[in-house]
Write a structure and sequence with these properties.
Elements (H helix, E strand, L loop, with lengths): L2 H6 L1 H9 L15 E2 L5 E7 L4 E6 H10 L9 E4 L12 E4 L1 H11 L12 H15 L3 H13 L13
Antiparallel strand pairs: 1-2, 2-3, 4-5
Helix pairs in contact: 5-6
Bound molecules: zinc ion.
């Protein structure tokens, strides 16, 4: 992947940020563009000025944008502390190994009310948040819509033990 070229292209950087809903410093910054089956953001990086373009995972582009082109050298992956795959808040990312990432998921996937236990699955959850944001008209409405969209994935309530 020609990361240096794609990260250096101002059109791509602008397009990346145009798909990110920037919120409070500690909140999840949801991706508003394309989504993968795992709920991760995806977009086409590159433009006519770079002479090359690739579809890239949004968080891998954003992580390198925040920490440098070589930040994930050696096979490192980006872990989401918040367990929201579409999240683009750099403060919610942590580089680690694939094993770290698998251990994160194993440790958290049985916690009730947790993103990983959303009945819609990761992609369904990400799509529901995007749809909620799209219909909200003001910043306050956006916050309420996101909260409702997230809660809808846990129909039994966040503090009730999961039955499935
Ligand atoms: Zn987050």
């Amino acid at each position: 992947m020609p990361w240096a070229v794609l990260l250096g292209d101002q059109d791509t950087v602008t397009r990346y940020w145009s798909h990110v809903l920037r919120r409070a410093a500690d909140a999840c910054w949801f991706w508003l563009g394309g989504l993968t089956d795992t709920g991760h953001g995806t977009f086409r990086a590159g433009s006519h000025t770079t002479g090359t373009s690739r579809v890239v995972p949004a968080h891998l582009y954003g992580y390198r944008l925040a920490h440098g082109v070589d930040a994930l050298a050696g096979g490192l992956v980006v872990r989401h502390r918040c367990d929201e795959p579409p999240c683009q808040n750099p403060a919610h990312w942590l580089a680690g190994s694939r094993g770290d990432n698998n251990r994160d998921a194993a440790a958290r996937r049985h916690l009730s009310g947790h993103p990983l236990t959303d009945v819609r699955g990761a992609a369904g959850r990400a799509r529901a948040v995007q749809a909620a944001i799209a219909t909200a008209a003001s910043p306050d409405e956006i916050e309420a819509a996101i909260a409702a969209a997230l809660a809808a994935g846990h129909p039994g309530g966040a503090h009730q033990d999961a039955l499935w």
